[in-house]
Design the sequence.
């Protein structure tokens, strides 16, 4: 009965405030797309969290660059992850979203005007256009956000294998990547759940990861995944003393030759050609992505 009463409170409040914020975003975007992005990130996060009395604890906020022009990447287990990233960054964010979301009334219209929509079926031309737009946005100091797993993780695995396409933006623009490990989101709103629970989320922000010249997209994706996994698995009480993560300086020069001591991610790092087709050599790091870049993934 309590959950029913909570639903009668949460959903009407959430719907009315979301629609209202959407119309305000459309109006504001005519004058300032930065202000519009602030509403669709920080303000909308408050709309999601406030009716459910959800709080967010942030650790490692000093790792965020003082100026823009970087890419946030985070693990994804719940619908709560998107507003959690917004609260952790506390600045206007440009979400890189699939083009289909642009068809949603009000919400989609705002995405079209202020964020990046990617045509997942558009082929190489659409991918080149997306990369050019991302480079321009990063050059102008915008903060982009992606969920490189491509879908919500419903398994016991800490982090699903990353899609390489999500990292072509950082590789081409040489933009720093900032990992954010989100804790407890699936406990408060699990996949398939119809209502969130009251509680506290934690967003742990890691140190910047910079692409290096001698690594391919596959290597960069595996390195980023390992860093986010370690950040996610680090006890929250120990995050304050975490002053670095293995792999920040680039791929290891002397990786083990055999898979006996390696997990799946480590094996791909030691063998860069393992996740490529046979006709794609390892020394072609800048080919266009062969998988979707989808920060608001399929649910």
Sequence:
């Amino acid at each position: 009965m309590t959950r029913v009463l909570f639903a009668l409170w949460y959903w009407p409040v959430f719907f009315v405030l979301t629609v209202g914020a959407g119309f305000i975003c459309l109006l504001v975007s005519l004058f300032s797309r930065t202000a519009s992005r602030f509403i669709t990130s920080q303000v909308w996060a408050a709309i999601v969290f406030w009716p459910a009395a959800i709080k967010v604890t942030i650790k490692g906020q000093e790792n965020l660059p003082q100026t823009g022009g970087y890419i946030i990447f985070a693990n994804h287990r719940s619908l709560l992850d998107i507003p959690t990233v917004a609260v952790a960054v506390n600045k206007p964010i440009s979400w890189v979203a699939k083009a289909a979301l642009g068809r949603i009334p009000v919400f989609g219209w705002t995405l079209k005007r202020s964020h990046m929509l990617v045509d997942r079926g558009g082929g190489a031309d659409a991918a080149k256009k997306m990369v050019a737009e991302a480079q321009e946005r990063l050059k102008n100091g915008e903060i982009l956000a992606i969920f490189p797993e491509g879908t919500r993780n419903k398994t016991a695995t800490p982090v699903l294998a990353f899609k390489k396409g999500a990292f072509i933006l950082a590789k081409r623009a040489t933009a720093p990547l900032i990992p954010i490990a989100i804790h407890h989101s699936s406990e408060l709103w699990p996949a398939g759940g119809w209502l969130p629970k009251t509680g506290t989320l934690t967003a742990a922000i890691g140190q910047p990861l910079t692409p290096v010249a001698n690594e391919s997209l596959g290597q960069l994706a595996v390195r980023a995944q390992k860093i986010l996994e370690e950040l996610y698995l680090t006890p929250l009480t120990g995050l304050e003393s975490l002053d670095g993560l293995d792999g920040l300086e680039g791929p290891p020069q002397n990786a083990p030759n055999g898979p006996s001591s390696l997990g799946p991610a480590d094996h791909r790092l030691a063998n860069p050609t393992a996740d490529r087709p046979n006709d794609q050599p390892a020394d072609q790091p800048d080919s266009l992505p062969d998988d979707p870049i989808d920060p608001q993934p399929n649910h």
